[in-house]
Amino acid sequence: MAGMTQNPPNLRPDLAPKARIENTARAGQPKIGMVSLGCPKALVDSERILTRLRAEGYAISPDYTDANAVIVNTCGFLDSAKAESLEAIGEALRENGKVIVTGCLGAEEEYIRGTHPSVMAVTGPHQYEQVLDAVHAAVPPDPDPFIDLLPATGVSLTPRHYSYLKISEGCNHKCKFCIIPDMRGRLASRPAHAILREAEKLVDAGVKELLVISQDTSAYGLDRKHDLNPWKDREVRSHITDLARELGQFDAWIRLHYVYPYPHVRDLIPLMADGLILPYLDIPFQHSHPDVLKRMARPAASAKTLDEIARWRDVCPDITLRSTFIVGYPGETETEFRHLLDWLDEAQLDRVGCFQYENVAGARSNDAPDHVPSEVKQERWERFMEKSQEISEAKLAAKVGQTLAVIVDEVDAEGATCRTKADAPETDGNLFIDENFENLSAGDIVNVVVDEASEYDLWGKLES
Ligand code: SF4
Prior knowledge:
Layout lengths: L30 E6 L3 H16 L3 E2 L8 E6 L4 H17 L3 E5 L5 H7 L5 E2 L5 H11 L23 E5 L1 E2 L10 H5 L3 E2 L2 H13 L4 E5 L14 E4 L2 E4 L2 H8 L5 E4 L12 H5 L6 E3 L7 H7 L8 H11 L4 E8 L6 H14 L3 E6 L17 H24 L5 E9 L4 E5 L10 E3 L11 E9 L4 E5 L2
Parallel strand pairs: 1-2, 1-3, 3-4, 4-5, 6-9, 9-12, 13-14, 14-15, 18-20
Antiparallel strand pairs: 7-8, 10-11, 16-17, 16-19, 17-18, 19-20
Bound molecules: iron/sulfur cluster.
């Protein structure tokens, strides 16, 4: 398909001329090939997968026969793109045999398996973790702690300036709308030193922002009984407060996602006030009404969240709070929904996302009584969005005139797209610079005076 973005030829097993292959793998290092088809977003996914694989000790093979397995990142937008994806999968199967399919066409597993029943795994777009799981199953990682796993040189795909850092897998909760614990099992935290080593390699390789992710970040280390792990000249407890403090030593922005409002989250706030980690908490509250939260079986359902939020803001007035909510959960009454709107008014969260409740195959909430009719869900969603937009607009308007540090994500002919500390990549807003941006590059952190605001985004000029 014309205009397709593909990973550089010297990394593509299907395009690389044999003479150009540079084999930089150490002896015995597991090797993965990648064929990336589709739009720039898919290329970003491919880069991220490769970056993670490198960090885990895999080499990237530009040769089908040398690779232990091949990932094909597909496009399924047009029929022609589907055909090309199927063809690429067929070629990888013929030349290598061990093929993991991901990307947009991955959402149509039956379609792929109809032509190519022998592919090892099929995952959809942005399912990095599932792709990594499939690679682990096909070719176990073999990291060598004495060799730089992610050297600054030798990685042909430049790591992006931000990277996700997964600290645990699975979850011990049983929220009724969620099937993750059934799919991923119980909480399994990585040892603190493994996380810190990965973070160190990423930062050494140029990553400027680390996004800490898991299913339940505040529960980190519970399964390990918060054991001590050797790191450098000290021992680090596998506890989120200790881990966050250590991550704060790196020269990078540290952003915490999926934190539940347990009491010990209070201990993270001074680290934010001291500038060790970003003053940003992504807390999936999902609802405010205690009865709805109980019916959802949410962790920390009884927490007095408004009091907690006030306490956090006392310690760190600049803190940005982001959250997601579900409206129209089975049994949600108009009174319960209004409770949520009033709560939003009080909580004044900076960034919110809202979903209308939907059944998910296998979730226990499917059988809950009193499902909310879809027109009521839609109407509540609109009221919710109106309220949250008002709050966001007022919060952003208050930033006009302030000088803020921003990280540059992208520079093109029009300007520089950046984010403030209050904005996580891919989910929150942006700050745009459209004058004197020519010398900026992705990953730069600069100070900007904000001169304009909309509901979700800001504009500004470089501080002189
Ligand atoms: S905390 Fe709840 S929603 Fe989140 S992964 Fe665990 S069960 Fe699912």
